[in-house]
Design a protein that fits this description.
43% helix; 14 strands; eight-stranded mixed barrel; alpha/beta; 402 residues; 16 helices
Length: 402
């Protein structure tokens, strides 16, 4: 490992245990981080983060603290729109840590994962490397609102919305069969921002229709460009809960497909499990009409919500995408493994294609293959990339096979 690998990163440790703060501080200093600071409470952390000169790339948050505990701190971080990475740690059992990770993700925080005490240098190295992969070419800031409604509206017109693409691989042939389109925002001051910085704002400010149109238009336009280069890929597009109630959505999709001469069957719309059941009648109408237009439907982040079998049966899903929190590390996490196993079995019984997302290492790949998953997606294969970077990556991958 290069001594300078993490020298540009600043970390803040939040733990009421002085001895533990000292241990983690020394461990991070051994890894040559640029700056390491620590505080004894969530209140101190928030005060420090409000200082414009105190930029931290990563927060290491203990869950069990007197006064403001780690879970409450997550809520305040979300309200402050903290855009850096969050790593949770605790002496609590794995189920509590898993629940805390889900809370952080539900609040659109960039949670890297969780660690049980004692925290080791190998574990910290893994998550710091993970951070650098995920946030490469991305500037993050802590505290303060990055966008407002007028900026979002103007930015949609000015082309600030862009799409990155993460490859999806057939687990039997290891061929790249598709990509997932992931929205990013090109901010003039703060660089490339993730969806947590703008998707909630789009939904709150009634701009979700414009936002959805821009995502669909850009994804299908890219499909046309790839088709001209003989790249006939499946493309998965995430659709927010508000978008599913747009009655014109099926016509919009059909129009763009016909205009760009792109086969509708090559597009899959991903709807997260937590959205299933909201305004069920309208949702069922819109999604059924989308199926009639020839597009595919995927239920995303499966395992994080409470979909009933009746809902899965009523909505014509083709694909079940198992959330990465149950895929990564499932070989050593009994609770995650149980959910992964049952979800994969359920999808197979319903005749659905199974996608394992969050595949980050060989163990994750091997276990997903053992369960008979059809498609894999995750950092073990590749991170999300701009279109031109994806094309270069694909050429290198194909050349390596020859």
């Amino acid at each position: 490992m290069s001594e300078k690998q993490f020298c540009h990163l600043n970390a803040l440790i939040i733990d009421d245990d002085a001895f533990m703060r000292s241990i983690i501080t020394k461990t991070l200093q051994r890894l040559n981080l640029g700056r390491v600071e620590s505080v004894a409470s969530g209140e101190e952390a928030l005060t420090l983060l409000e200082d414009a000169d105190s930029h931290f790339d990563i927060l290491l948050v203990d869950l069990l603290m007197p006064g403001m505990d780690g879970i409450e701190l997550l809520r305040h971080l979300a309200e402050h729109e903290y855009q850096g990475g969050v790593l949770l740690f605790s002496g609590a059992d794995s189920k509590v840590l898993k629940a805390a990770v889900n809370v952080a993700r539900a609040r659109y925080l960039n949670v890297l994962g969780s660690l049980q005490k004692p925290v080791t240098v190998d574990a910290l190295t893994y998550y710091l490397t993970h951070y650098q992969s995920y946030f490469r070419s991305r500037h993050t800031v802590s505290g303060g609102s990055l966008l407002n409604t007028s900026e979002l509206r103007q930015g949609l017109s000015d082309g600030h919305l862009t799409l990155f693409y993460q490859p999806q691989v057939d687990m039997k042939t290891e061929a790249v069969v598709g990509v997932e389109a992931l929205a990013r925002w090109k901010h003039p001051q703060h660089g490339l921002l993730g969806p947590g910085a703008f998707v909630p704002l789009a939904e709150e400010s009634n701009l979700v229709g414009d936002f959805t149109t821009a995502v669909i238009a850009q994804a299908i336009d890219q499909m046309q460009k790839w088709k001209q280069k003989q790249l006939n890929l499946q493309v998965a597009i995430n659709i927010s809960s508000s978008s599913i109630s747009i009655l014109d959505l099926p016509h919009l999709l059909e129009h763009y497909c016909q205009h760009h001469k792109v086969e509708a069957s090559r597009i899959t719309l991903e709807i997260t499990e937590t959205q299933v059941g909201q305004d069920m009648v309208t949702m069922l109408e819109v999604l059924t009409r989308i199926k009639l237009k020839g597009l595919g439907l995927s239920i995303d982040d499966f395992g994080t919500g409470y979909s009933s079998l009746e809902r899965l049966q009523r909505i014509p899903f083709d694909e079940l995408k198992i959330d990465g929190s149950f895929v990564h590390g499932s070989n050593r996490d009994q609770a995650a493994r149980a959910i992964f196993d049952s979800s994969a079995a359920l999808g197979k019984q319903l005749g659905m294609s199974i996608v394992a997302e969050g595949v980050e290492n060989q163990d994750d790949w091997d276990y997903a293959a053992k369960l008979g998953c059809d498609i894999a997606q995750g950092f073990y294969i590749a991170q999300p990339m701009a279109p031109e970077d994806f094309e270069d990556w694909l050429k290198r991958r194909e050349a390596a096979k020859e």
